[in-house]
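Before a colleague's protein record goes any further, I have to sign it off. Alongside the sequence sits a line of tokens, each denoting a local backbone shape. I want your independent view on whether this chain really folds as the tokens say. Where you disagree with what is written, explain briefly why. This is what I was given:
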Amino acid sequence: MRIWKQAISVELLTASSLNTAVSHLGIEFLEVGDDFIRARVPVDSRTIQPYGLLHGGVSVVLAETLGSCGAAYAAPLGHRTVGLDINANHLKGTTSGWVSGITRPVHIGRSTQVWAIELRNDAGELTCVSRITMAMLLPR
């Protein structure tokens, strides 16, 4: 079942992210399904920490980007969504290639939304699991 309350596409997500942390880190939106968004981040000089691994904070940026976008487009027109809480468990380091993420809703309510995000390396191995809670703000 399609959950989106607003028009959504890879092109719209990409356009809305120009000149933001998302574009500066090289995050690319890949796919929008009926109940998910998929994106990826490169493991390169912009995104690694001193040990050569994808920086954990960059994994959280990808997770928050996915969950926040999901919440925003699943909200009724005029509503705003803002993050309340995010957590991330880093399970496996990545030193090259891409890390891809997918988000799906756990709960879409009137006042809050909860989104689960899984990040995987090019081999399909789970590198990070995250969950974000978003507040739904009524139109002004």
Summary: The CA atoms of residues 3 and 127 lie 27 Å apart.
